[in-house]
TrEMBL record, chains A, B:
Phosphoribosyl-AMP cyclohydrolase domain segment(s): 45-120
Domain of life: Bacteria
Cellular compartment(s): Cytoplasm
Gene that encodes it: hisI
MF (Gene Ontology): magnesium ion binding; phosphoribosyl-AMP cyclohydrolase activity; phosphoribosyl-ATP diphosphatase activity; zinc ion binding
Metal-binding listed as a keyword: yes
Entry-linked Pfam families: PRA-CH
Protein name: Phosphoribosyl-AMP cyclohydrolase
Biological source species: Methylopila turkensis
EC number: 3.5.4.19
Binding site for Mg(2+): 92, 94, 96
HAMAP family: HisI
Catalysed reactions, as listed in the record: 1-(5-phospho-beta-D-ribosyl)-5'-AMP + H2O = 1-(5-phospho-beta-D-ribosyl)-5-[(5-phospho-beta-D-ribosylamino)methylideneamino]imidazole-4-carboxamide; 1-(5-phospho-beta-D-ribosyl)-ATP + H2O = 1-(5-phospho-beta-D-ribosyl)-5'-AMP + diphosphate + H(+)
Length: 149, 149
């Protein structure tokens, strides 16, 4: 979202209050996509879409993303079978972020590490910095088998 | 997250499985931050943190972001009173996204438009494209009063 409270900053009323879908892609042609579990509600993963991935998602009802590492359109679950059916997609106030509520096929795992969510570690303050604690570390599948790594 | 399934793509085992916090900032020095309601679970907003905002968030337990529009450290709620107390912060597999579960002070609104969540519109297929439907449009405060716009 954009931040308020600056005299020099103007918000676009049509973008924020209108019903025209005008997704704002960044300079790489991408828009942020937050994926949550339609049943449980927790955040499953975070990724980006380009215009093609967004169109494919809307057209098929199945989540597509842009893989920044592979530089390719990516139908989530194409290798693992963990397809994501979109129950609802929302856009934020300034239309530069999407929120998808999904049902995950197969084991229900969204993370390539085999876990249900990519967010399986908590950030905790430690010695003036921070360290991590494993909180949802159970694997629902073995990535070495699924991806043949 | 990163996408799997490419022979040329390697995952960093230490980053994914270790307990060292090693946030991966993008070329602008920012990391994505997803904010959900610790009580209700829904996504409230999406923003970015730079290293200073992340440190301030960890040190104070109150959400700070980097305002891309104002190019400034931004303590969420500094103008509106809608401070966000962080109940839990998590990081994703490749440590390039954060998930904050927060309690929002004041009216409980997270969006500068006065709404509880920035995601108050649903994206719906329409005529080969998409349009928006208002789904959580109620305002908890009047932004014209709060921000003096």
């Amino acid at each position: 979202m954009t931040s308020p409270a600056s005299p020099s900053h103007t918000h676009d009323h049509d973008v924020e209050e209108g019903l025209a879908f005008a997704p704002k892609f960044d300079r790489d042609g991408l828009i942020a996509a937050i994926v949550t579990d339609a049943a449980g509600g927790g955040v499953l993963m975070f990724a980006y879409m380009n215009a093609d991935a967004l169109k494919a998602t809307i057209d098929t009802g199945v989540a597509h993303f842009w893989s920044r590492s592979r530089k390719a359109l990516w139908r989530k679950g194409e290798t693992s079978g963990h397809e994501m059916t979109v129950e609802e997609m929302r856009v934020d106030c300034d239309q530069d972020a999407l929120w998808l509520r999904v049902r995950v096929a197969g084991t229900g795992a969204a993370c390539h590490t085999g876990r249900r969510s990519c967010f399986y570690r908590r950030v905790e303050p430690a010695d003036g910095g921070a360290s991590l604690a494993m909180v949802d570390g159970d694997r629902l599948f073995d990535p070495r088998v699924t991806y043949g790594a």
